[in-house]
């Protein structure tokens, strides 16, 4: 049974308790123009616990040189609480994904051009954070992986679907989706508030989260992560929550 679509047609809803994170596992229809797909690499490297250890290890590996900005991981926003959109409940939590056959399903309903381009840039086997949004406490709950690269999103042609797009043609589909599979839960819930604290600190000292799209392009439901961003956020699961 397909899961509810991922996108909101109009308007943006701020994550509760975090006004800077605007949209749940959905993004509003924006005037973003098509952008070139980001080059990607397969995931690599390991995480170090804590900013000091992470920085020390990176300087050792690279001679202190800044790595090139390459996106090879992702963050996918999803709403864990019920919300009706054109009469359809768009709720889809990590538990809903785990309940799917083979713990796998398609990531449909994206109707933002930049987010669509990110979907199209995803490569088989790349990992992503599953992020609960538009809920009491937004944050990262699990890791998933891409098990099928971009292909046409069937919901754009379904007149009964809330994300039907009458302007899209089957011979030249406007919208894409990928298939994702559950990998594991994070060792602990990593709240948005904690990630933001590190983001603000890194903006001041040049840390890996200084340009994290979760805070620079909050409305996007599909967001790329560099290896450094992914490694640092993943290292937080080893830390005791403050």
From TrEMBL:
Is Zinc tagged as a keyword?
no
Q: Where is this region: Disordered?
A: 1-60
Q: Where in the cell is it found?
A: Nucleus
Q: Which CDD domains match?
A: EVE
Is the keyword NAD in the record? no
Q: Where is the EVE domain?
A: 73-235
Q: Where is it found, in Gene Ontology cellular component terms? A: nucleus
Biased-composition ranges, Basic and acidic residues, are: 10-27
Role noted for this protein? Specifically binds 5-hydroxymethylcytosine (5hmC), suggesting that it acts as a specific reader of 5hmC.
Please state what the protein is called: Thymocyte nuclear protein 1
Q: Which gene encodes it?
A: Thyn1
């Amino acid at each position: 049974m397909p899961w509810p679509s991922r996108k909101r047609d109009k308007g943006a809803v701020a994550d509760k308790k975090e006004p800077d994170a605007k949209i749940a596992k959905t993004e509003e229809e924006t005037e973003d123009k098509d952008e070139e797909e980001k080059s990607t690499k397969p995931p690599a490297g390991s995480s170090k616990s804590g900013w000091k250890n992470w920085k020390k290890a990176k300087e050792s590996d690279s001679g202190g040189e800044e790595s090139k900005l390459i996106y090879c991981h992702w963050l996918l926003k999803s709403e864990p609480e019920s919300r009706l959109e054109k009469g359809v409940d768009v709720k889809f939590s990590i538990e809903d994904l785990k309940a799917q056959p083979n713990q796998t399903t398609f990531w449909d309903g994206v109707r933002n051009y930049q987010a669509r381009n990110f979907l199209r840039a995803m490569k088989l086997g790349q990992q992503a954070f599953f992020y609960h949004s538009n809920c009491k406490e937004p944050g990262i709950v699990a890791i998933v992986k891409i098990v099928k690269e971009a292909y046409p999103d069937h919901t754009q042609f379904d007149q009964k679907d809330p994300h039907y797009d009458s302007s899209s043609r089957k011979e030249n589909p406007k919208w894409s989706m990928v298939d994702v599979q559950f990998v594991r839960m994070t060792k602990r819930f990593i709240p948005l508030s904690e990630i933001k604290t590190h983001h603000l600190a890194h903006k001041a000292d040049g840390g890996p989260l200084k340009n994290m799209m979760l805070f620079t392009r909050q409305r996007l439901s599909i967001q790329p992560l560099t290896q450094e961003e992914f490694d640092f956020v993943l290292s937080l699961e080893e830390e005791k929550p403050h």
